């Protein structure tokens, strides 16, 4: 991987390069003017992981810089601070390292450290070891929790020791509302909370005024968009294949007192069959598909994007909100979707400054000549 080099004074320049790239790549679709949403130029990432590199009596946080010409050639890069990571992570890094150096029990065969922090001030640290963890480790780790005001999980082969809890609670502010999200260790969450708030606000804006209609959401994760969009619609049906994410999404629905949304553990492909009446079973029956009036679909797929069959599936809805983490596969999908729909809004969300990564949002509506 290429480790981002943070240069706040050049942030506007790098953002302009991303804008130019997207405008050029998507010009063939004749989209409206690109909306650009900037990130804080540093300390924007709420989760981060480091290898722990041991050199004699010393140890430090490390990442690997990979030579693109020779992937086997990896250079160890030391980090005492990391400008990409949140201020909370940077404050914890030296204090944790000091604790490791002072304790053989905490440092011995420590392999990796993973941070999960929130705008609301919580911090969960996972310590990964190449050895079994016993009572002595737990005693010292609990003392470290209390000293630093954090939560700790210890992991090793076939071991997972949760000292306090396995999640943090994030509080996002979206259009003046506070939304609470349980974020579970080792599960996907949006890493840039500032940009996440912007994405949710944008999605609310483009789907406003549909309280008499229903939303279907594919790849809903822990309910990130589900929670924010629920009051824009009469009802929401969200699907997700990960059992952990579905459980977390249901916790988040309850925490935010959302009563008009249902989360089903089902793949997008299975859901398509259920809609056609070609799949039955308890989970399909619980969805009560006949009671919905779907007008809008929201998809937030993995980097591989959607296959042709999934594009055909979502083209059956009048409104499409497509959140993409890969412009290349987004362009491939839009080549199919724009046969029936037109692009109404097009946005760049700068999730990862000083990298090539571009997060996009596209709102499409059915063309008058669409089938």
Question: Could you please describe the fold and organization of this structure?
Answer:
The chain has helices at 11-25, 87-102, 104-107, 135-148, 193-206, 224-229, 243-255, 268-275, 282-287, 308-314, 327-337, and strands spanning 35-37, 47-55, 58-67, 70-79, 110-117, 123-129, 151-156, 159-162, 167-174, 177-184, 210-218, 233-240, 261-265, 294-299, 319-324, 341-349, 359-366. The chain is α/β, with parallel strands linked by helices. Strand 5 and strand 6 (123-129) form a beta hairpin.
Low-confidence stretches: none
The total of helices stands at 11
Task: Return the average pLDDT rounded to an integer.
Answer: 93
Largest sheet: 8 strands, mixed
Spatial ordering of strands, largest sheet: 1-16-17-15-14-11-12-13
Helix content: 25-40%
Q: What portion of the residues fall into strands of 2 or more residues? A: 25-35%
Radius of gyration: 22 Å
Note the run of SSEs as H and E.
HEEEEHHEEHEEEEHEHEHEHHEHEHEE
Query: Could you tell me how far the N terminus lies from the C terminus, measured between alpha carbons in angstroms?
Result: 44 Å
Structure summary, number of beta strands: 17
- Coarse structural class: alpha/beta
| Shape designation | globular
């Amino acid at each position: 991987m290429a480790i981002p080099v943070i240069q706040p004074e050049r942030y506007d320049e790098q953002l302009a390069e991303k804008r130019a790239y997207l405008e050029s790549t998507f010009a063939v679709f004749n989209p409206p003017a690109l909306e650009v949403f900037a990130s804080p130029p540093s300390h924007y990432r709420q989760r981060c992981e480091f290898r722990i590199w041991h050199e004699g009596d010393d140890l430090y946080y490390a990442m690997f810089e990979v030579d693109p010409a020779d992937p086997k050639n990896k250079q160890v890069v030391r980090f005492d601070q990391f400008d990409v990571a949140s201020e909370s992570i940077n404050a914890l890094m030296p204090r944790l390292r000091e604790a490791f150096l002072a304790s053989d029990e905490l440092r011995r065969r420590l392999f990796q450290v993973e941070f999960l922090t929130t705008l609301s001030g919580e911090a969960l640290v996972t310590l990964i070891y190449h050895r079994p963890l016993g009572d002595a480790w737990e005693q010292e780790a609990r003392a470290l929790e209390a000293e630093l005001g954090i939560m700790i999980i210890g992991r090793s082969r076939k071991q997972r020791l949760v000292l306090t809890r396995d999640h943090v609670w994030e509080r996002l502010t979206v259009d003046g509302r506070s939304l609470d999200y349980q974020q579970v260790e080792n599960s996907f969450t949006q890493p840039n909370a500032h940009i996440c708030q912007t994405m949710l606000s944008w999605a609310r804006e483009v789907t406003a005024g549909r309280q008499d209609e229903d939303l279907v959401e594919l790849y809903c994760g822990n309910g990130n968009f589900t929670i924010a969009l629920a009051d824009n619609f009469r009802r929401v049906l969200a699907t997700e294949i990960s059992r952990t994410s579905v459980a977390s999404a249901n916790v988040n629905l309850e925490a935010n007192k959302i009563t008009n949304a249902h989360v089903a553990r089902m793949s997008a492909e299975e859901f398509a069959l259920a809609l056609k009446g070609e799949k039955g079973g308890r989970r399909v029956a619980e969805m009560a598909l006949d009671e919905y009036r779907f007008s809008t679909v929201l998809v937030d797929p993995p980097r591989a994007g959607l296959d042709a069959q999934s594009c055909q599936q979502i083209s059956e809805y009048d409104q499409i909100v497509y959140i993409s983490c890969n412009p290349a596969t987004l362009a491939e999908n839009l080549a199919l979707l724009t046969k029936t729909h037109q692009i109404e809004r097009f946005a760049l969300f700068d999730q990862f400054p000083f990298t090539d990564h571009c997060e996009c949002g596209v709102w499409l509506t059915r063309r008058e000549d669409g089938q």
